[in-house]
Amino acid sequence: MTIASRFRRARGAAVPHRKNTAELATIDMPVPREIVLPMQQHIGALCEPVVKKGDHVDVGSLVGHAPRGLSADIFSGVSGTVTAIKPVYYSSGKTDTTVVIESDGAQTVADTVAPPQVTDRASFLAAIKKSGLVGLGGAGFPTDIKLAPPNLEEIDLYVVNGTECEPYLSTDYREMMESADDVLFGIRETCKYLDIPNAMICIESNKPRAIEHLRALTKDDPPIEVKSLPSRYPQGAENVLVYNATGRVVPRGKRQTDVGVMLNNVTTMASIGRFLKTGMPLVKRRFTVSGDAVERPCNVQIVIGTRLRDVMDFVGLAKEPRKVVLGGPMMGNAQIDLDYPVIRQNNGVLVFSEEGMEQPKTTPCIRCGRCTNSCPMRLSPVAIRKAYATQDVKRLDELMADLCMGCGTCSFVCPAKQPLAQTSKLARDFMRAEMAKRRN
Amino acid sequence: MEHEDNVSRVRPLVLSTAPHVFDGISTQKVMLNVLIALVPTLVASAVIFGWRALLVTAVTTIACVLFEYLWCRLRKTAQTVGDLSAVVTGLLLAFNLPSTIPLYMAVIGAFVAIVVVKELFGGIGRNFANPAIVARIVLSVSFTAAMTNYAAPQIASFAPGTAGVDAVTSATPLAPSAPALPFLDLLLGVHGGVLGETCGLAILLGLLWLLATRTITFTIPGVYVGTVVVMSLITGHDAVAQVFSGGLLLGAVFMATDYVGSPTTFKGQVIFGVGLGLITCLIRFWGNMNEGVAYSILLMNLVVPYIEALTGATPLGGQKKKLFGKKKAEGGNE
């Protein structure tokens, strides 16, 4: 540690926790009349629908088949009939294909669902490939690809991300409180087949009960350490978490696996555990519903593909919704309307009323330096914005704009409410595109 | 996703990019914290120099706000007086003037600060140097006599034998002819000087507020004053007198820490503070002026872009920038 770092203020920001659903046990939400399954519920290539209008599907039936490479199969969470295959338009301007399935209410389980036969690494990875699992912390990175990096032999530590640093959301916390056995089973099995000697479950200090609970369950299992980390956003951002938990710095342009760390979200680990036990692919998940317009904020066990409108009907709305955010308030996306379905990497929905949503006015930058001093990646958002304004790729490269992970801390702390996170993300994408062009 | 749905809705949902929550801080709140921190100094100046201190402060503050208001009106731009930064400039300007200053000069100072230094360069956040400092320097150069016509304090000194002496003017303790003052006089500000600089205690109270509200960090004032102390000890000057007389504390706490004219990184702030301390001591000890705080802040304000360029943080996972020598070819980075 250098002298300078001793004096440096803690990076990141003290965002409000607002975890009003944390101590509420998960409720099973009734199966909706109809589910909508977009063919992209992950990072990577679109799935190809393997059903057509009029087909019958069961719970756990394959609906979208993943092409080779980065993608993950999509399964039905209801039994019923495919009523439509139609396009969907997102608020980002992108389009996608969806499969609409009308539930028959029977919830018949498909006969393909059976616990996988896992004996070694190859059969383990093959099983995960058929589980439809993606990173459930929000990124949606296909799990089977993540678990098979080219340098698997160099990995000595499994970091399990249970920090849940986004305000409001409490699904990971509920996972640790209610399904700790699945979490630990998932970690132990994965470590066994991938031959990773140690695991570290990282939890923010604002969840003392989860830390205590998991410590009690792992006290006879020394390879699994439960680590308490300061509650400071964005503690759960991948590279930040690796650095804060282990001191290892992921070099620019590399991944966590390049510093010997495998990293997964705690809910992903629990889902691996459940899949190995039951063979039921990912068709349900825990989901936080909160925000000031929600009458009954809660955690629900939800069928993937349930429309937001059905979620709202279930929890009730106290006020007119004005802003609906899928995910946490720091990185989540605002939605155009309530007909969008919950997809597998969504961990919650926040519904804000007119009074509850924050739309602060932008004023001129006063050069206070809060953004630079808070950036967990130590970037300079104002300098990046200037370089982006002049489309200066060389300067963006010097400023390492590609390291921005879009956590939103700079916008959060800015007294002038400048849209710094937004310009940084634009700059990052612009720079990556330009660099790719130059390489070709 | 069906588009007919939007028609039935009374109002469409609000779309915006993340983040959707914000820290409660705003430019106005930052300025308000600075104003609160300036209150002890304002009270002290009124006690030490009497009602005219308040009059000068009122004139500069009203003039600063008015100039900014008029500027925005005439330029037909968004009104910015609500951010309170002009009020801060007005107070700081007054604190840099002696209580005897003719009021029209105070108004000229406000014009220089707000119109010339701030608005002509693009308004808040774009001034090339601290507006109040430049105004003080312009007034000192233009009206040297009036700017050094320090009124005597209206309350009794703690120095023995001076009680009851009805002095009209009084020299700054930094003047070579000035007698050495007892420490209590220096701390409480019972000596000649501009409005805001004499009472060290009030400034330190303000510093505590600024630190408690995290408006500033201790780096710049700490390094600045520390450098002056070290320089004084090396050159055989009275360090305590150097710290508590003249504009050092006022400058270090309120003027050098102005966001716009100071570096944002810890390293940059250390360089900035050392530079301020060195220039102040050079002027005070070997220059032909008694006071060097204003010029040191102006000079260091001007080199901030260079300090920033040299001290930018290395991003997590990025390679350290090489200041000297050839840059390494970035081959395996992508």
Fold and architecture overview:
The complex is a heterodimer of chains A (440) and B (334). Chain A has 440 residues and is an alpha/beta fold. Chain A has 14 helices and 17 strands. Helix content of chain A is 29%, strand content 19%. The longest helix of chain A is centred in the last third of the chain and has 20 residues, at 420-439. Chain B is globular. At the A-B interface, helix 7, strand 15, strand 16, helix 10 and helix 13 of A face helix 2 of B.
How are the SSEs ordered, and which strands pair?
The complex is a heterodimer of chains A (440) and B (334).
Chain A: H1 3-7, E1 27-28, E2 34-38, E3 48-49, E4 56-57, E5 62-65, E6 74-75, E7 80-89, E8 95-103, H2 121-129, H3 143-146, E9 157-161, H4 171-178, H5 180-194, E10 198-204, H6 208-217, E11 224-229, H7 238-246, E12 261-265, H8 266-278, E13 284-290, E14 298-303, H9 308-315, E15 323-326, E16 333-334, E17 348-352, H10 370-374, H11 381-389, H12 393-398, H13 409-413, H14 420-439
Parallel strand pairs in A: 1-14, 9-10, 9-12, 10-11, 13-17
Antiparallel strand pairs in A: 2-8, 3-5, 4-7, 5-6, 7-8, 13-14, 15-16, 15-17
Helix pairs in contact in A: 5-8, 11-14
Chain B: H1 4-8, H2 27-49, H3 51-75, H4 85-95, H5 103-119, H6 131-142, H7 144-147, H8 183-188, H9 200-212, H10 219-235, H11 239-244, H12 248-255, H13 266-286, H14 293-311
Helix pairs in contact in B: 2-3, 2-4, 2-9, 3-4, 3-5, 4-5, 4-6, 5-6, 6-14, 9-12, 10-12, 10-13, 13-14
